[in-house]
Amino acid sequence: MLSSDSHVMEPPDLWAAAPEELADVAPRVEPGEDADWWVVGGQRLFSFSVATKAGLRFEGQERLLVDYRFADVRPGSHLPEAHLADNEVDGVWGSVLYPSVATLLYDLDRPGAAAVLGRIYNDWMAEWCSQCPGRLRGVAILDVDDVAAAVAELRRAAGRGLAGALIPVSPLAERPYLHPDYEPLWAAAEELGMPLSLHIATNRPPGEWKVLWTQWGFQGADRFVRDSLAAMIFGGVFERHPGLRVVSVEHEASWVPHFLSRIDETYTQRTPRDGWRRFGDASLPSEHFRRNVVVSFIDDRVAIALRHEIGVECLVWGSDYPHAESTFPRSRQTIDALMAGVDDAERSAMTASTTAALYGFDPVPGPAAVGPGEGAGAPLQSRP
Known about the structure:
By secondary structure, this protein is of the alpha/beta class. It has twelve helices and eleven strands.
C-alpha cells in the first residue's frame, strides 16, 4: 500500500535560524513541567504528543495524554530510515508527507511570515525525502497571500524534488479560490504536474482552525474544504485547467455524494443570480470534481460503500502516521475490514496505484512481496 497522507514531526530547532525579525513568531519549543510545548506566533499551542501517538488509540483513550517531550516521540516521525521501517511493519511501501507544526504557519497574522518560514520547512522536507525519494514524497507549504511568491516557491520546490504543495484549506475571506488573482498558481501547478492539497486545519484566517479543538467543531471539518472546492468548480478553475489536481486531505470522504448532488442541483435547478457562470460545454459541476479532485480518507466505511457514487478514481487511502488517529500499526487489518467485498482492482486503485500515479512513486512491489491480509509484523520485502 501507499499512504497518501502521512506526516513528519519537525525537529525543535528547525526554525532556530529564522530571520531576526520573525523570531517572535517562528515556531520554537519551550520545556514545561509537564511536557515540551510548541510555541507558534507567541502562543503555546501543543506538546509533541499532538503528532506522535501512532497506535496508542488501540490501547485505550486514556493513553492519549499531552505529557510528551521530544525524547518521547516515535523516531519514525523525524528520521527517514525509521519512518520507512515503521511503514514496512505496517504493510506500507511509501508515504506522501505533510508537516505537523508547519501547518500552523497559516495562522500567523504577520505578512510574509508564512512564506519565509515555509521555505525553511520546504528545504528540510526536500532533504528528508532525498534519503529515499522513490518512497518518500514530500509536500511543500505555500503562502498564497502573495500569489507571485507562491508560484516561485512552487517552482523551487518542484526543482528540489518535492511532489506536491499545500495551500490553505480556507483562504482569506476577501479572496476565495474563485478569485482571478490565483490564476498564475493554478497554471503553474498544472504545468508542473504538482497536486495542490487542502489539508484539515490549514485555515488561513487566524484562529479559524481552532474550532477543530472543540468537541462539537471537529465533526464539521469538511465544511471548509467543501467551500473551497465549490469556489474552484463554479469559478471555472478546472474548466480552464483540466490538468490541475486538487487533493482533499484528512476530511474523510463520505460527504462527497451529498456535495456532488448539491452542486449539480444548484447548477441545474436554482435561479441564477448576478455573476453566476455557465461552463463552455454541457458538463456538470460533478464532472469537474471527478476529473480534477482526489479525496484522501483514513477509515471511512460509508465512503467505501458509496465509492461508485464518489468515483473510485477519486479515492486514495492514507494512514495519517504518526498522528493519534492513525491506522498504524494496524493498517493492513483496517483496510481488510474496510474493503471486504471490494474487488482487487478497486482496492489496488484506492490503496496504491492512484497515489503512485499522482505523486510519482517508484513501482510498488507486487503481491509476492506482501499479500492481501498480511498485517503488522509482516514487513515488505526490500528491493535490491
